[in-house]
Amino acid sequence: MKLKLDFEKIYLIIIFFFILWAGVANLWDYKINHDFPFSYMASDTFQHQVRIDSIKQMGNYRYEAPYIAGGFKDAIGFYPPLMYHLDVIMSYASGLENYDIAYLLTFIILCFSSLAFYLIIRRWNKHIAMIALPLSFLLFTRGPGIGPYALITWGSWPLIFGQFFLICFFWYMTNFDLKYSWIFLAVFLSAIALQHQTELLFAAGFMIIMGIWWLAKKEFSKEKIKHFTSGILLFLVISAYYLIIFRFTLVKTQVPSGFNIVATTSTDQTLYLSNFGLILPLLIIGMIIALFMLKKKFSTPILISFFMLLVGFGNYIGLERHAFKTRCLWPIYLSLFLGISIYYLLKLVIKKWKTAYSFAIGIILAIILSGVVAIPYIPHSERFTSAGIMNQYHWQTFNWIKGNTDEDSKVLFLYGDVYNQNAMLRNTFRVPYMVNTEEYVSALANRTINRHIGIYLLGDHHGVHYAYRKSLLDYGYHADEIGKDYFYNTQRDICDFDFIIVDKVSSQAALAQYNILIANELIKNDFIKPVFDNGIVVILENSNRGEDCIAEQTTF
After folding, report:
1. Do residues 269 and 151 make contact, with C-beta atoms less than 8 angstroms apart?
2. Distance, CA of 190 to CA of 243 (rounded, Å)
3. How far apart are CA 242 and CA 393, in angstroms?
4. Mean of the per-residue pLDDT values of the chain
5. Quick one: residue 29, left, alpha or beta (phi over 0 = left, psi -120 to 50 = alpha)?
6. Most buried pick, 111, 424, 460, 551, via CB within 10 A?
7. Among 65-74, 98-107, 458-467, which is the least confidently predicted range?
8. HSE-up of 313 (CA within 13 Å, CB side)?
9. Beta partners for 106?
10. How far is residue 128's CA from residue 352's CA, in Å, rounded to a whole number?
11. Region 365-380: what's the mean pLDDT?
């Protein structure tokens, strides 16, 4: 029997695992299980990790956990919930810790995004799709500036999931002629609504453009109107409950801040066309060829790529960070232009094209763009391993507090190098308080010990002000009612805490010594004693909360 090689299927399998290798395998040092959240490099990563933990603990996401919501027990679960529920389900199914499965699933979703866009291109031209796919390796570049890799390591995971469902929506737009495909429209729009609503704006914009095109070509039939109406109505039914929450939380508190027009960013993850190096001329050639092709015959994949190119420049019309972060997905959206340019340039000399040629070119591009063979001025995925800002000592500390203290215990963190990314402190499962670093440093400089000092009551209120529901369409906002100063500009008593966490080691030696000095003053009291010490962090228990525990000192 003669076996026939299916180059395309072999190719897709190779690229899928190659992308995982270039992304998460290198970052995790080829280990899938970790003793603590590994490669978590910003507060947002911990924001998502802790929320996943809380949902798994509570069994639902009706409310935010009190240690996320400043101690309030009625703050509504406002964050788009789809990713969190997927992570919890996959954690149960795989047996992996929440913090590992959340990271792994983010990388897998990026792979699926690349493959979904491959399917979009493939329906138009298989060879261009195969050549285009390896550009996805540039999802894992880190600079110059804050590159796409930080989209992952800094915790912009909801956007990554939202972009995946947006690509699924684009796939639907190239397959809307399938029977009952309006169900796909409803499912993908609902997924976007329950994940990252910015992409709903992009989907709506693309549907409007397609509608205008059909009207101009007199192709907007009653059947299409019925099709889209059915899909949108089902989408509204599926998403209604969360869209109401979204309206009274994120829309109410963030949209009024307005839109800002900016040219560049130093704080958001992004890409610029110049970051593509020697790949850029090929992209430009592909764009020029695509424009001529679009003029000759309409192509939905080409329109999608140009549309997302323009969305990436949305910072010039007010989309700001949404546009900048969307650019991080340009290695997927602009890959079509790379495929077009290489394919049609080579077609000038190769008249009879074979799948094996696309396979070979794709593998060569994958080797170059993954960095296995680095070529100057051609960007490639960057291979590095980092434990991130968490470490075993602080993870042990958080777990001790979680397992050995009452749920209503008041926990105060003195200065710690990593605590500026304060969402990690929610891993105690206790409402976290932390000294105001500026006041703390000032006290050290003035050689004083202050019993009353600025202490932050931490939580995730910046987005929605601890919104709570009074009725279906009536919401209150704890942070507005109490006043934001209560959380961040209040002098509190160090003695009014059940547990005080003291870092004994710091990159700032003077601050570590100051921590130890305060700890030594505190344990002079019979009712304060160390209950945990791993050499880096010590936990003091105050059994008489509110009693005089430390004297104000003007010099030491």
Report:
1. yes
2. 10
3. 39
4. 94
5. left
6. 424
7. 458-467
8. 6
9. none
10. 15
11. 95
Report the alpha-carbon distance of residue 298 to residue 342 in Å, rounded.
21
Domain ranges of the chain: 7-31+78-369, 392-542
CB atoms within 10 A of CB 512: 20
User: What letters, b where the CB count within 10 A reaches 16 and e where it falls short, cover 92-104?
Assistant: eeeebbbbbbbbb
CA–chain centroid gap for 119, Å, is 24
Q: DSSP of 388-430, one letter per residue?
A: BT--HHHHHHHHHHHHHS-TT--EEE---GGGGSGGGGGGGSS
- In this structure, how many other beta carbons lie within 10 angstroms of the beta carbon of residue 459? 26
Per-residue pLDDT tens for 293-311? 988 888 999 999 999 999 9
Return phi, psi of residue 395, to 5°.
-65, -40
- Listed in sequence order, the DSSP H helices in 125-251 are 126-132, 149-153, 157-173, 182-193, 198-216, 222-246
Task: Match 């969305």 to its residue by tokens.
Answer: 311
Distances (CA, A) of 416 to 300, 362, 412, 491: 53, 48, 12, 19
Tokens of 526: 């019979």
Question: Which residue in the block uniquely carries the two structure tokens 């050499």?
Answer: 535
> What are phi and psi for residue 433, nearest 5 degrees?
-120, 150
Structure token digits, residue 156 = 């912009």
Single-letter residue type at 132? A
Length of the chain: 556
Burial class (CB in 10 A: 0-12, 13-18, 19+), 227: middle
Question: What is the residue-wise DSSP string for 176-192?
Answer: TTSTTTHHHHHHHHHHH
pLDDT in tens, 333-365: 999 999 999 999 999 999 899 999 999 999 999
HEC string of 486-497 equals HHHCCEEEHHHC
pLDDT at 143: 80
